Amino acid sequence: MSASVARGPGPRWTDVTALALVALTVAVAAAAYPRLPVEMVVGWHVGLDGRLSRTIGPRALGVTLLPTLSVASYAVLRTVRALVPLDGARDGRLYDSLVHLLLASLCACQVAVVAANLG
Question: Which residues contact residue 21 at a Cβ distance below 8 angstroms, ignoring those fewer than 6 apart?
Answer without folding.
Answer: 70, 100, 103, 104, 106, 107
